[in-house]
Amino acid sequence: MTCPKTLRNGPCGGVREDGNCEVNPEMQCVWAKAYERKESLPLPQAWRDHYNELRPPVDMRLKGTSSWINLVTRRDRQVPAGWNIADQCVGE
Amino acid sequence: MSRLQELLEGDSRHVYTSEFATIDGAGMEKVIATAQRLSPWFDAVNATDNPAAHAHASNMAVAIAIKEQGLEPIMQIVCRDKNRLAIQADMMGAALHGIENLSLLTGDDVTAGDEPESRRVFDLDAPQAISVASSLSHGTYLSGRKISPAPQFYIGAVENAGAPPFDYRVERTLKKFRAGAKFLQLQICFHQDRLEKFCSGVATLVPKMHLLPTVVLLNGSRGMKFMNEKVPGIDIPQELIDRVEGSSDQGEAAYRLTLEQSLHALAQPNVRGLHIADFRHDDTLERLMRDLGRTPRQKLQP
């Protein structure tokens, strides 16, 4: 995760005209790069759709632990009980 | 239901919001003077949250002061300075004081400000903060702990139609809508083609989202150059800078540009009004509002 603002849900509004990062102008915005790739690579639509998923706040307790083990054990899928209540209520 | 919500969801007239001044000195003089100046023209005003990563009197203190002056506040919360506990506490504190309108954004990085050595937080990002505000409105803290009575927030957000990746900005609007945002105050966009494309994209993909594009009142080309060079995410076409710079009356040329941008923005789909940032602090604010067909409300009694 190389976004200097540690953003998890896409590029912020500070992306520069050349597509580079607000914080580090020498670096391409990682979210802009990912967007470019998801649009241009021959990926299944379901994979493309991952880009727009609302990702939950990071569980800081997992810092320093193995992301592979957390993936396999599904520990990284645990979210707080009050997370994303609104999505169930869209259209109200 | 907040007055802003009633206005945006009604379909009568245009809705105008503005940026309240940043407050630094002790005492209420500047708050009162700014409220007097803005109240005849605006339906609601933003209490900003350390804009451009400079510390000022807090968003909540200013929002309460605005409300006490009889104006409707929109409390801005950025994700840069506080973690999820503090952000939820601020939202609940706002609700305690009857502040219902929120504008939730990621925020400029600390490197944009005058204390770039600060720790940046970003424990939440803007879509997550929107979702958390929605959870609170549905009677639940992020932890799942219940709240009764639940606060009634009218949640807004910000989007930059003028920053790459341009096509993505509409998808991001849908993400924010699904998380609970009902209106967007757009970042100033000097590229009319980008704004047009964004608004028509929103009209197709997120038809219920209310848009308030920002326009700025500037003195002349110096301010334009500053924004173009120093503010990431804002690009001003050289021909516009030249047009203002080459004029014998820069103030007038800058005003004509703002009026032109305002009329153009108001003509776009899903646009319900404008968000106006006044960097001139002269009589052009009143001139702009009158040129846009707005009649002043009675001034607040001091």
Explain this structure to me?
The complex is a heterodimer of chains A (92) and B (302). The model of chain A has no long low-confidence stretch (mean pLDDT 91). Chain A has 3 helices and no strands. Chain A has 92 residues and is mostly helical. Chain B has a single domain (3-291), classed as TIM Barrel, CATH 3.20.20.220. Helices cover 40% and strands 15% of the residues of chain B. In chain B, helix 3 (59-68) links the parallel strand 2 and strand 3 (73-78). Chain B starts with a helix and ends in an 11-residue tail after the last helix. The model of chain B has no long low-confidence stretch (mean pLDDT 96). The chains are: A mainly alpha (92), B alpha/beta (302).
What features would you highlight for this structure?
heterodimer, A: 92 residues, mainly alpha, 3 helices, 24% helix, globular, B: 302 residues, alpha/beta, TIM Barrel, eight-stranded parallel β-barrel, 40% helix
Fold blueprint:
The complex is a heterodimer of chains A (92) and B (302).
Chain A: H1 30-40, H2 45-49, H3 67-72
Chain B: H1 3-9, E1 15-19, H2 29-38, E2 44-47, H3 59-68, E3 73-78, H4 84-96, E4 101-105, H5 126-137, E5 154-159, H6 168-179, E6 183-186, H7 192-205, E7 210-217, H8 221-230, H9 238-245, H10 250-266, E8 273-278, H11 284-291
Parallel strand pairs in B: 1-2, 1-8, 2-3, 3-4, 4-5, 5-6, 6-7, 7-8
Helix pairs in contact in B: 4-5, 5-6, 6-7, 8-9, 9-10
Any idea how many domains of chain B? Answer: 1
Structural class of chain B: alpha/beta
**Class derived from helix and strand content of chain A:** mainly alpha
Which percent range describes the beta-strand content of chain A? Answer: under 5%
Q: What is the H/E order of chain B?
A: HEHEHEHEHEHEHEHHHEH
Describe the main β-sheet of chain A briefly.
none
Shape of chain B: globular
| Main sheet makeup of chain B | 8 strands, parallel, barrel
Describe the oligomeric state of these chains in a short phrase: heterodimer
Mind telling me which CATH architecture of chain B this is? Answer: Alpha-Beta Barrel
Q: For this structure, what is the CATH class of chain B? A: Alpha Beta
Provide the succession of SSEs of chain A: HHH
Low-confidence stretches of chain B: none
Q: Average pLDDT of chain A, to the nearest integer?
A: 91
Could you give the count of β-strands of chain B?
Answer: 8
How far is it from the N-terminal to the C-terminal residue of chain B, by CA?
27 Å
